[in-house]
Design goal:
The chain has 291 residues and is α+β, with helices and mostly antiparallel strands. The protein is built from nine helices and ten strands. 41% of the residues are buried.
């Protein structure tokens, strides 16, 4: 089967994630440092002759009404006024409900893919607006491999990316619901940590990774309920990771390694039945991985 175009949609980790108290509108202010890694979903699309059809194939079991690829495609067509029939194929490699942003990345990839197919009919600002409509994390995946994210997640400031860093993702098969995790956090909020974006950026760019004081506010409540995730983090640090933590609300744990050899040795020692994803931190612009 011939597909018209393909794009690779990367995962992300949260090197740092501070969460404020619940606001009156029900949202929480956050301060986070997002970073893309080279674990990708592959998204392909082809045009069909019939009009006003949008479907998806692949190993994605999300119901159509909740599928962000289809939502992004419909939003793009409604915004541009283009009537077309589209069929997507999504090969998911990024674990779902794991704090890696796979769904948001797929949505951003959909917008990029369709805009390219239609001769870049929309400029950056229009694309950013559509991304923000689909979800807070979607905007990040439109912009830069690393960024400071504030507000309720809708404010994204790209920052220079560190180079030549390796990351080991550990998926122990534990799914942590976002709404549930925020409820746990609201029940027992911790003391504020790094709350100044400038301080966070300075630490990331100006200090060696061994000196980072990053943390994830969700770790305490999540680790209390899933002690295996805490054990995974501790094992990563024992095996040479210079920084380790939960990404997003969980339940994937990541470790940062200064060199590939140390990472490979950590992998060789095993983590039980958990799935291991040795990846590199992306240090190039998102546009560079469009195919």
């Amino acid at each position: 089967m011939r597909w018209d175009s393909v794009i690779y949609c990367p995962a992300k980790i949260n090197l740092h994630l501070e969460v404020g108290l619940r606001r009156e509108d029900g949202y929480h202010d956050i301060l986070s440092l997002f970073h893309m890694v080279d674990l990708y979903d592959t998204l392909m699309v082809r045009s069909l002759k019939s009009l006003d059809y949008c479907g998806i194939q692949g190993n994605c079991d999300i119901p159509p009404q909740h599928n962000l690829v289809l939502k992004a495609a419909r939003l793009f067509c409604e915004t541009t006024g283009i009537r077309c029939a589209l069929e997507f194929y999504l090969d998911k490699k990024i674990p779902s409900e794991a704090g890696l942003g796979g769904g948001s990345s797929d949505a951003a990839g959909t917008l990029r893919l369709l805009n390219r197919m239609k001769g870049n009919i929309l400029g950056d600002e229009d694309m950013y607006r559509l991304a923000a409509t689909l979800g807070s994390d979607v905007l990040f995946f439109m912009m830069s491999p690393s960024a400071l994210v504030t507000g309720r997640g809708e404010k994204v400031k790209p920052v220079k990316s560190q180079k030549d860093m390796w990351c080991l993702l550990i998926d122990a098969g534990i799914k942590v619901g976002t709404a549930e995790a925020y409820t746990w956090l609201d029940e027992r909020p911790g003391p504020p940590g790094i709350t100044d974006p400038a301080e966070l950026e300075k630490m990331y760019l100006g200090k060696p990774s061994e000196s980072w004081r990053f943390f994830n506010a969700f770790e305490e409540p999540v680790f209390q309920r899933y002690s295996v995730l805490k054990s995974v983090k501790e094992a990563l640090l024992r095996r040479g990771a210079v920084h380790a933590g939960l990404t997003g609300t969980g339940g994937v744990v990541f470790g940062i390694f200064p060199e590939e050899e140390t990472l490979r040795k950590a992998c060789s020692e095993g983590f039980g039945k958990a799935k291991l994803f040795p990846v590199k931190m992306l240090a190039r612009l998102y546009n560079a991985i469009l195919q």
